[in-house]
Amino acid sequence: MSQEARNGYGEGIGGTRRNIRIADRRTSIKLEPEMWDALAEICARTEKNLNQICTEVHSARYASQASNANEPDDEPGSANFTSELRVFILDFYRAIARN
After folding, report:
1. pTM for this one?
2. Fewer Cβ atoms within 10 Å of its own Cβ: the N or the C terminal residue of the chain?
3. What pLDDT digit, counting tens, does each position of 1-40 carry?
4. Distance of alpha carbon 93 from alpha carbon 98, whole angstroms
5. How many other CB atoms are found less than 10 A from the CB of residue 10?
6. How far apart, in Å, are the Cα atoms of 31 and each of 2, 4, 41, 69, 83?
7. How many domains does the chain have?
8. What is the DSSP letter of 9?
């Protein structure tokens, strides 16, 4: 279990809720402890903090949604953003595995 989960950021069934900032906006997301651990490792490898990573993922999503008017604009803390964050984690480790 990650240190964040042990610190009581809303641990429960299905994951741990943590507060993050996306740009200047505060929100919360819920992820499994393993996903939080993976994000912490990504932060260390990229020398970025969690808020920077989340802002980049959200910005990339927003840019792709702007090019497709049929998709709804989701809130940063929404289930869809959380799914996109999981995809980002998977893509990050896939890129490492390819090299």
Report:
1. 0.73
2. C
3. 455 444 445 555 679 999 999 999 999 999 999 999 999 9
4. 9
5. 12
6. 11, 11, 15, 28, 9
7. 1
8. S
